[in-house]
Write a structure and sequence with these properties.
With 95 residues, the chain is of the alpha+beta class. It has one domain. 38% of the residues lie in helices and 32% in strands. The protein contains two helices and four strands, in the order ββααββ. It has a four-stranded antiparallel beta sheet with strand order 1-2-4-3, covered by helices on one side. Strand 1 and strand 2 form a beta hairpin.
Amino acid sequence: MEHSPGAIVNVHQTNPFGVTLDWELRNEFEEAISNEEISPEARTARYRRRITVREIMLDATLRLLHTAGFITMKDHEEGDYYHYRVIAAPGDYPS
């Protein structure tokens, strides 16, 4: 499924269960990574930058939701992967 660039809210009924956030980059970013004219090293560097941009945007989105009163959590999955979770809406969780 193709998404518009920006934040994506996912609701899971199976693992990782609950509400998680993701971030979609512009298509141009993906096309730059898959361009066959660049070296494997340059492709790896671009891919790493894509991951870094995604992590920065997800961290910022999670902080914004937390500031707005949502209960949030950055949940370590494995390796360098995290689930960015929304646990409860404002007022739905005891203080």
